[in-house]
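Quick one: structure tokens for this chain, please?
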Amino acid sequence: MASAQPGNASSVRDLLAHPRGGPTVLRIVLGTHLRSLREGCRISREAAGDAIRGSHAKISRLELGRVGAKERDVADLLTLYGVHDEPRRGQLLALARQASTPGWWQKYSDVVPSWFETLIGLEEAASVIRTFEVQFIPGLLQTPGYARACIRLGNPRASERQVERRVELRMERQKMLFKEHGPKLWAVVDEAALSRTLGSRETMRGQIRHLRDLADRPNVTIQVAPFDMGGLAAAGGPVTILRFLEPDLPDIVYLEQLNSALYLDKRDDVEDYLAVMDSVCATAEPHSKTPDLLDGLRVLDGLKNRP
């Protein structure tokens, strides 16, 4: 996922001083710089792999930010790429050291697959998170009860402990929205997700109340895509687009599947999904109407339960 053009040395220095997103972002930025240096020297991945006693696949994983990098390997690559300036080498080696430290989510490694760890780190680093969901309320907006019902549905073989650990992780992820410099979350929720009962009716009432409260937060925008909106051009599934303040990070599209996920950062792919997201946002009900829409759902639910 490291296809952005790397910034200058000051951007690396700033990132080292304020590493938003922890090791995930640091790995991606380091990979971006290593890839740019290699391509600038016209050195193949195979040749770079030989220099660190590895394969071209290892170089690919390093440049994509999918694995941490040993300082020794980074030092050997910098020498191969002709980077002898000590301040420059020092910054990139420091980046490699910090990129190897575990993120807070490592304590949930028993229930978090590696492909999902990347998303958690990207969320922590993002300045804007845009997401569109049809079947469910987005995870960053879920209550514990609703999250529990979703997790049980998607993980029918999970033990109660595993379910509760996943719920706990989801609640931990949400804490960033309440931090002083947390990201802006812009979510479009399909009316179907609001109307479909997951868990108990009380669970859904609590979830609607929670959305109503979050809609009042200055960094949270919630739009509802009503049934009469017509077809939704969202590639048949949930879409999340993450944007970052760091100049070395491109916009990234996250597409989650049952047991894996895709991370897209090629400009053409991202622009396609941005166009889809812009279209959905333009045709969904505006955020200003969301409180009334959610209050209306609560009133209807109350009428349904009258004797």
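The CA atoms of residues 4 and 250 lie 5 Å apart.
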